[in-house]
Inverse folding.
């Protein structure tokens, strides 16, 4: 209990510190989610449970600062009435289910609400986080630099024995899960494989637009190195879902662009030739053991089709257990056992079925009504992102919107609520719905002003100072 009190006091201090500069706090949160696992596994393993909430306290300070500003900047959100209305409805239903008696304690419901809604305000903050397209670009290219040390660590993990200190999970002295050839499935700086897989998917999503953008020789070289690390370490994770998602993302990216802007796609192909050649050499020559290990795992496991199908069919099976009700917000949260033991909370109602997939767990927690509301909300956000892509004209912003749309579509039924890394990145990418059109409007306005000034200077007005 003393450790809990100390953690709350420390978290409060961090939140107050973050409130001094909410923009810096949001960007710091995006960095912390990458290094959090390393802090928990190696730097401060004795405080791993408290460090799990470090990014949340930083983000809480950013929220407090942003929403307490005079004339709080919510005008962008106010223009999207459907999204705003659905946000309120989903939030109310999650709150309602947090009081579900099946949970055994409201505390579990509070943690459940946090899982569903805590990162959602990120999409409202994002339009004011970046003031110009250039500022967004510079942040993304700098953020992706983190991939270099993280990827190099993952490579070191792969070639280290399973008993190596590099190869442990959080609060676990056992070795990583094994892939083919008795090699480990790497996690980089993340606590588990799932977090690193999500991170690699996001990096690929951002790297595709950066490859086509005009960059200096240094930054283009770094971008190519980052692409190679994504490709190489994706095989080292042994994550079949990640590989399928990456293929779908790349194919969808070029296919949809080709349908609408074939000329631009053809002109951009040369920029992908060198990264493609290097990726082929890396996977077939330099890091062939990683490809072989992945192939052994993929070819000897035949449960993937059943898991994919089950993720869609599980909800309809689970509805039968509680009728129109659910077990409550947070009922299937993986940390419930730790929370109940730490706070001496009563046990909740027993859930008489095995659950793993995200959709099945949402169905169990929120019931059929909440399930339809939640996935209806996600579908509306996905369509809004698609509309942003269709409306944008500036190449880099348009490609960012397309890449984000594809990743959100591919991961539609994947872990989100119960994976904090995916949760944070999901709402960050949804912020593109509001951010990207606003950045394009600013560029258009600047061009308009420049054109008008040139017109005034060249016109022969009697009262013009430029006559």
């Amino acid at each position: 209990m003393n450790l809990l009190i100390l953690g709350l006091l420390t978290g409060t201090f961090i939140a107050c510190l973050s409130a001094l500069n909410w923009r810096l706090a949001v960007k710091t949160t995006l960095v912390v989610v990458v290094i959090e696992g390393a802090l928990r596994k190696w730097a401060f393993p004795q405080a791993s449970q408290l460090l799990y909430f470090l990014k949340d306290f930083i983000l809480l300070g950013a929220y407090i600062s942003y929403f307490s500003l005079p004339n709080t900047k919510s005008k962008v959100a106010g223009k999207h009435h459907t999204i705003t209305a659905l946000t309120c409805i989903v939030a109310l239903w999650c709150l309602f289910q947090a009081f579900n008696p099946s949970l055994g304690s409201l505390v579990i419901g509070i943690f459940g609400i946090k899982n569903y809604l805590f990162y959602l305000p990120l999409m409202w903050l994002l339009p004011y986080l970046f003031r110009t397209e250039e500022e967004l670009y510079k942040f993304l290219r700098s953020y992706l630099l983190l991939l270099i040390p993280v990827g190099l660590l993952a490579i070191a993990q792969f070639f280290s024995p399973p008993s190596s200190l590099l190869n442990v999970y959080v609060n676990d002295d056992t070795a990583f899960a094994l892939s083919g050839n008795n090699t480990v499935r790497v996690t980089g700086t993340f606590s588990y494989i799932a977090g690193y897989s999500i991170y690699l998917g996001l990096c690929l999503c951002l790297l595709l637009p950066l490859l086509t953008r005009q960059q200096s020789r240094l930054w283009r070289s770094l971008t190519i190195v980052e692409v190679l690390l994504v490709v190489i370490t994706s095989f080292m994770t042994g994550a079949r879902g990640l590989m399928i998602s990456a293929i779908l993302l790349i194919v969808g990216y070029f296919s949809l662009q080709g349908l609408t802007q074939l000329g631009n796609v053809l002109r951009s192909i040369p920029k992908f030739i060198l990264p493609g050649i290097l990726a082929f050499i890396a996977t077939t020559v330099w890091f062939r053991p990683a490809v072989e290990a992945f192939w052994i795992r993929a070819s000897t496991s035949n449960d993937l089709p059943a898991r994919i199908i089950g993720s869609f069919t599980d909800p309809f099976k689970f509805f039968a257990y509680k009728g129109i009700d659910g077990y409550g917000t947070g009922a299937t949260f993986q940390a419930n056992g730790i929370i109940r033991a730490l706070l001496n909370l009563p046990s909740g109602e027993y859930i008489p079925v095995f659950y793993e997939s995200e959709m099945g767990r949402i169905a169990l927690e929120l019931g059929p009504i909440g399930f339809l509301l939640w996935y209806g909300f996600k579908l509306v956000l996905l369509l809004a992102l698609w509309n942003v892509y269709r409306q944008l004209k500036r190449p880099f912003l348009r490609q960012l919107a397309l890449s984000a749309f594809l990743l959100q579509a591919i991961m539609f039924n994947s872990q989100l609520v119960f994976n904090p890394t995916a949760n944070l990145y999901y709402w960050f990418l949804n912020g593109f719905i509001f951010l990207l059109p606003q950045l394009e409007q600013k560029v258009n306005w600047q061009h308009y002003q420049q054109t008008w000034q040139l017109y005034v200077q060249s016109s022969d007005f009697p009262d013009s100072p430029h006559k």
The radius of gyration is 24 Å.
